[in-house]
Amino acid sequence: MDFFLARISNGIGIRLLEHLFQSVRTSQFTYFDLGIEENLEAYGTELPPQIPLENINTPLALMWGEFDGSITQQDAQWIRSRLENNIIFDNIYEDQTHLSFLVGNNIEEYLDDIIQLMSEYQTPNPNT
What we know:
With 128 residues, the protein is mainly α. The protein folds into two domains: 1-51, no CATH class; 56-128, no CATH class. 42% of the residues lie in helices and 10% in strands. Strands 1-2 form a two-stranded parallel ribbon. The protein is globular, with a radius of gyration of 17 Å.
């Protein structure tokens, strides 16, 4: 477990984790909650506004774990409904959890899909 925790925290800031916990606690996908006074200054409202997922215009791949305890099917459908024009791949992997994709559990079940997507959507390097 120490091995896992030492590696999973690389590159993850405290503020990112705090934002994740805010989202889980409120069941909302909003900008970072800075507190009433700072929210008023930053957003013009006491509460942070919803993140407008509809404005994303990047191709997205959605990969879900069948036993993902971090997201429900209702959550997944909500995300799909807001990103539908950008979803290029959407798959639920059997016997996977939310952390499976981070730690590589049963990677053979989804690695080919990742490689295929990366090959298909890679941007050519202009320097080559």
